[in-house]
Amino acid sequence: MADLTLVRPGPRTALERLVEDYLMACRARGLSKNTIELSYGYPLRAVFLPWCAEQGMTDISQLDRRAADSFSVALREMRSRRGAPLSVTTVHAYLRSIRGFLTWCEREGEGSPVRPPLPRLPRRVVHVLDREEVRRLVAAAPTERDRLILGILADCGVRNQEVCALRTDDVVRHDRQSFLRIHGKGSRDRLVPLPPALLRGIERYQRHGRPADTRSDRLFVSLRRGLSGEYEPLTRSGVLKLVRSAAERAGIAKDVYPHLLRHSFITNALRGGMDSMVVAQIVGHTSLRMIERVYSHLNAGDAYHALLVLLSQDSDR
Question: Are 102 and 206 found together in one domain?
């Protein structure tokens, strides 16, 4: 039997060390582990560094304009594991992450690497539910718990995982106003206004609908005991199932999923004249860039309607 030889990995290149330092800096900023691994770690470790190794690039100073353009072309010609070309959206996301790393390198005094250009994204069309469709959807839910979950998704604009993470003490009352304490991405908590009807529903659910003998501190738990004999905390897949089931019961032909309710909340709020900065704060966006990029489907008719509302308010004074 031949002896096995342990092959130790070689020392990291200067470029690889910079990538790991950058990811450590992302952790220090409080970004979640999933965000770091998926949004930053994968594009850098699995896409950028292997390409650099193929080109014999080991130092950030080697990334000049020619190398940046070459990488952009290589990324557009790259294929996924299924053999299909990468979509423009995926290429854009990878390049944004890599450009963020290169910007960090420059701030840290690691030279002036040239950032690859971003491809132009196609205009995104987001199909949303209007308020009547939202009303039908909530009314079609078979239980008080499900109606509350749908109402929070649709009227508070929160994410699927944020609903699942709600605890029983996350209803906050202050100066005759009520809020939900939302545990958002990157460990950032925020207070989201809670409409009075939803507050009353949550209070009623906690008194009569939520299992009293559950050990979980989560607000929403399963309707039946699991294999462990306990009422398990609600999961993201559980929310997806109840949303799709309610849409089918309501006869809504659109593809309805939890994030669509978030899109619908933001769209309806902007169409109703709510300030975009306020909308961004409610839904947990750290800047207006996401609002401006994703919700460009608000058309000239929306602007015309908003102007008429503003002028009518002026004429009433």
Answer: no
